[in-house]
Design goal:
heterodimer, A: mainly alpha, 0% strand, globular, B: mainly alpha, 13 helices, disordered N terminus, disordered C terminus
């Protein structure tokens, strides 16, 4: 991770100073940022500080990386969880219904819809939504972000479109998983046994089918959530959503190593955390795994 | 006497005579059979035909486009769709239909190149990891895991930041992102084939690793890789559009669908057609690759095949 970030060419100090500066300022800044030290030394310093929660100072703004990330985190978390909610609201009923009636009209329509959702370019859908709901109808603001505590209505209005865009895409992926896992659970022997001993269909479905179909659902939801939390860069740009993806993109463009390293470290931690939560959920859903 | 090259050793008859009838390969679908099954599926057939049309459009773009990509006509700027300009014109009076047609070549070239890179490198890594196992597997797959853990878009952006923007580098960036995907798919498929009796039989008659890999393992492990190729093409076209949209991919004035979308975004309330048609082109192309991928999976997956021919539900 450190190595890849260092590979990005360009002199961050030069970029931060602009075009007019003297050698003295340059040298002073170089020394202060620690960029004059050997790479290995830089890495050891960075890793040592990172362990204590100090991710360094941004070359560009002079703020600490932790404060910059903390500033962006609420927006990213809001969008990610809202998107997952939209995705699940779409995917679970749609996937389940198409699995219960395979090859029916509903199933075919659901399959086509999920294919559409997977294939649509997010930024195009975002632009079309802005055109319709912000432009023609004027119902929603075209972008931006306000904290929930400042203006709950404005917060919701600004959240709807980005959450729908990313939610539809994630939801389409999840729908296909729900469909196939419910289909598989339906074909299992224990379901046939439950049906044969005369349990009501609803009970068979809730206790024998849904519960077994839940494991793959939890896995794919975790994967999608990790993807959403690592910043949906393009959607954030279109909706001027001040999330981590935008921060990372700006950091790449400005060669702002500390910010980029901090953001990627955070993505890695989030990835691990989600995997941990998924594993814990596994054991809660399926007691067999505990053994 | 040894000057004469030895003929290729014929498959030793003793191997089959020695009472190992199971060395026979499982029935592997021929190309014709696969295509037949693929085209029995109407969605996949339509997607395939449409894709062929898009590819032909990209190949013969110079002939098909009514005007050049960068023919500026200030008098015609921001004209809505009409007979003269079916998709309208942009802020410089360039014909959008022509730019969409010429952009197909850019998008598809980047897509094919990217998937080509990923397919070649990823498949070789997956083959080696799956076939040799042990430390080869550990080392190669840990490297792939590291690559895979990076958020895809950020990894592509980082590669582009290192190499600079442009179509070739975009293809490289997307290709690198997809290497681990192909490596994983190939490895999993090889693991399923590696211990088959025909592979062991081939080893026991002294076939070289190269021969086993190319003649026995790769052909039998290929179906998931083919399906992955089609699906990855969809995502590569999408990724190229996204990167160009961010200003990191194809550079103006070249017509790329993503770039056209970015340019049209500024005129969205004034002239919707600027962003609408390039977006539609991306959507259709990606949809076709995805549907074809689904059709290929159905045609190549034996479990699905029994379902289709009435063996199952």
């Amino acid at each position: 991770m450190f190595a890849l970030v260092q590979l990005v060419p360009g002199d961050p100090i030069r970029l931060a100073l602009g075009t007019r500066f003297d050698q003295e300022t340059y040298d002073a800044l170089l020394e202060r940022s620690g960029l004059d030290q050997p790479l290995v030394q830089q890495y050891v310093n960075w890793a040592g500080r990172a362990l204590t929660g100090d991710l360094g100072v941004s070359f560009r703004s002079g703020e600490t990386v932790t404060s910059q990330i903390a500033e962006r985190l609420p927006a990213t978390l809001t969008l990610a969880f809202a998107s997952i909610l939209v995705a699940l609201v779409i995917a679970v009923p749609l996937g389940t219904i198409s699995a219960l009636r395979p090859r029916s009209v509903v199933d075919r329509v659901a399959t086509v819809l999920s294919q559409f959702g997977i294939s649509v370019p997010e930024f195009w859908m975002a632009i079309v939504l802005i055109l319709v709901f912000a432009g023609t109808l004027g119902w929603l603001p075209s972008g931006g972000y306000v904290p929930l505590t400042d203006d709950p209505v404005g917060w919701l209005q600004r959240l709807v479109m980005p959450a729908v865009v990313t939610g539809v895409v994630s939801g389409s992926v999840i729908t296909r998983f729900v469909r196939s896992s419910v289909l598989e659970a339906l074909g299992a022997d224990h379901v046939r046994t439950a049906q044969a001993k005369g349990l009501p269909a609803r009970q068979v479905f809730t206790w024998h089918v849904l519960r077994n179909a839940l494991l793959p659902l939890v896995t794919i939801t975790g994967v999608q959530l990790a993807y959403l939390l690592s910043g949906v860069v393009v959607v954030e740009i279109v909706f001027s959503w001040p999330g981590l993806g935008q921060l990372a993109l700006q950091a790449v463009q400005a060669r702002d190593y500390p910010v980029l390293q901090g953001a990627i470290l955070l993505f890695a931690v989030v990835f691990l955390l989600i995997n941990l939560v998924v594993d814990v959920l596994y054991t809660a859903i399926d007691p067999r795994i505990r053994r | 006497m040894t000057g004469q090259p030895l003929p290729e050793p014929a498959p030793s008859p003793t191997a089959t005579d020695a009472g190992v009838p199971s060395t026979a390969r499982p029935p592997r679908a021929g190309w014709r059979e696969t295509l037949g099954l693929l085209f029995r599926n109407p969605t996949a057939a339509v997607a395939g035909v449409l894709l062929l049309g898009i590819v032909l459009m990209a190949v013969f773009d110079e002939w098909l486009a009514p005007s050049g990509a960068n023919e500026i006509s200030v008098a015609d700027r921001l004209e809505p769709p009409s007979w003269n300009h079916p998709f309208g014109t942009d802020d410089l009076g360039r014909d959008i239909l022509s730019r969409v047609i010429l952009g197909a070549a850019v998008s598809l070239r980047v897509g094919f190149l990217a998937v080509g890179i990923a397919l070649l490198i990823g498949t070789v890594i997956g083959l080696l990891a799956g076939y040799y196992g042990r430390w080869v597997d550990d080392v190669l797959m840990r490297i792939m895991d590291m690559l895979f853990a990076f958020p895809a878009v950020l990894l592509a952006i980082a590669v582009l930041a290192v190499r600079g923007p442009g179509s070739g580098n975009t293809a490289l960036a997307i290709g690198i992102v997809y290497i681990p995907v192909f490596a994983r798919v190939t490895r999993a498929s090889v693991l399923g084939v590696r211990e088959e009796v025909y592979v062991r039989a081939s080893r026991s008659v002294g076939a070289s690793d190269w021969r086993i890999l190319t003649r026995h393992i790769l052909p039998n492990a290929a179906p998931p890789i083919i399906v992955q190729t089609s699906i990855s093409l969809a995502f590569a076209v999408l990724a190229e559009a996204a990167l160009s949209f961010l200003g990191l991919g194809t550079q103006p004035p070249n017509p790329s669908w993503g770039l056209m979308l970015a340019e049209g975004r500024g005129y969205i309330d004034l002239a919707w057609w600027l962003a609408f048609f390039p977006g539609m082109a991306i959507f259709l192309t990606v949809l076709c690759f995805n549907l074809l991928g689904d059709g290929l999976r159905d045609a190549l997956d034996p479990r699905q095949r029994t379902l289709m021919t009435g063996g199952g539900r």
